[in-house]
Amino acid sequence: MTLTSGQVAKRAGVGVETLRFYEREGLLPEPTRRASGYRQYPEGTVERVEFIRRAQLLGFQLKDIKELLALRDDPGADRQDVRAKAVAKLADIDQRIRDLEAMREALTQLVATCHGSGPAGGCPIITAIARTRDAASDSV
């Protein structure tokens, strides 16, 4: 049984443009076409799209997802390869959390310096951001 783009999109909970995007990115094989030009997807496409969406929700980038799909589709692939990708994604997430925590701390300190009255141009937050930008451009 084959499905149209609309049927796949509806069952997978995505838009038709998402399917076309996944095709362009090589995450979905190009489907066969009817004589009318309409795409015909195999039944397994819905599950593949759902896999892609769930992997995105876990933070995997399209390149990573393409590699995971290749591992999934390769009968000779080892679980260790999949695990290594997940471990690398965890390390990436941990680093992003550390970066976000550092940003939060810096912003918390800046907020504490601004008492909310007076001209905005003299606000310590504006001054600190301008100083940070100037320091960053000096290092470039």
TrEMBL record:
Keyword Coiled coil recorded: yes
Pfam families for this protein: MerR (PF00376), MerR-DNA-bind (PF09278)
Coiled coil stretches, renumbered: 83-110
InterPro entries reported in the protein's UniProt record: DNA-bd_dom_put_sf, MerR-type_HTH_dom, MerR_fam, Tscrpt_reg_MerR_DNA-bd
GO terms for MF: DNA binding; DNA-binding transcription factor activity
Taxonomic superkingdom: Bacteria
Domain HTH merR-type: 2-71
Alphabetized UniProt keyword annotations: Coiled coil, DNA-binding, Transcription, Transcription regulation
CDD domains tied to this protein: HTH_HMRTR (cd04770)
Gene3D superfamilies recorded: 1.10.1660.10
Name the record gives this protein: HTH merR-type domain-containing protein
Organism: Gemmata massiliana
